[in-house]
Amino acid sequence: MAISIGNVNMTALIDGVITMARDLSSQHELNKQEGPGSWTHDDGWGIAYLHEGKWHITRSTTTIYDDPSVNELRAKKAEIAIIHVRKKMGSEKAIHNTHPFFHERAKRKPVMFCHNGFIDEEIMHDEMYRPVGKTDSEKLFFSLLSDLKRDNLVKAIRKNFKRYEKLTGTNIILATEDQSVIAIRKNKFPQYYKMQLAQTEDTIIISSEALQNMPYVTWQPLEQGDVIQIKNKKLKLKIHAKKLPESKSVQKAAQHIYNSPPLEVQT
């Protein structure tokens, strides 16, 4: 998955993510034995992009590098673009299980969400949120939105991530028109779940892997436990680098939280 903010080059972003979906960008723990190209993400794709204050979302269950419809998006203008390619785990290939997920909030700006990872345990959220699909990712999205009503952004994400023990890893992209947040949980596969940051004068890109078709930018690896906040319009970036402790089970505490009255969202 990847997010680009500022002067978005949609064609370059799409091409870079296609190479990543083919598993040709890097070597990591999950392709080390059989080699690059053995850990493809071929269970669908989605793009959410913002242009002139309006979000546009396209999702498909076709493999992105076999889907000619992705070419229709290459010429689109955008101030923010989020791309996700899916490798299904625990739920079927279906549009309602395909990222990015989004939520319309009354009197608030829509929120977009992508997730890389798999959480194999119960994920709780406020009852007001109604998942459409069957993924852990959509439930995690709603769980994070629930927690954002009670804590500041960084604290809410850290507390939420600590709640899960049965997982491979969890990286997220959470974005509104005004602000984007990327977070990397402590995980079992640090090479695979290491995200990369690139900055120019007019663009910020954060991607699951360095995009090989962009030799003109310098990629900086992000670390486990990092939470990155971006003020989209000002291209102002802050990395909260506090390391996350080992996860602990706090399901009882979470159950108490989600039975409490909702508070005001802080974003």
For the biggest β-sheet, the strand order reads 3-2-4-1-10-9-11
Number of strands: 13
CATH topology: Glutamine Phosphoribosylpyrophosphate, subunit 1, domain 1
Look at the structure and name the CATH superfamily.
Aminohydrolase, N-terminal nucleophile (Ntn) domain
Q: Could you tell me the radius of gyration in angstroms?
A: 17 Å
Give the strand content.
Answer: 25-35%
Labels describing this entry:
7-stranded antiparallel beta sheet, 30% strand, 16% helix, 4 helices, Glutamine Phosphoribosylpyrophosphate, subunit 1, domain 1, alpha+beta, disordered C terminus, 6-stranded antiparallel beta sheet, 267 residues
Please provide a written account of the structure.
- By secondary structure, the protein is an alpha+beta fold.
- It has a single domain (2-258), classed as Aminohydrolase, N-terminal nucleophile (Ntn) domain (Glutamine Phosphoribosylpyrophosphate, subunit 1, domain 1), CATH 3.60.20.10.
- The protein is built from 4 helices and 13 strands.
- It has helices spanning 10-21, 136-147, 153-162, 251-258, and strands spanning 2-6, 45-51, 54-60, 80-85, 101-105, 108-119, 167-175, 179-184, 196-199, 203-207, 219-221, 227-231, 236-240.
- Strands 3-2-4-1-10-9-11 form a 7-stranded antiparallel beta sheet, covered by helices on one side. Strands 5-6-7-8-12-13 form a 6-stranded antiparallel beta sheet, with helices on one face.
- Strand 2 and strand 3 (54-60) form a beta hairpin.
- 39% of the residues are buried.
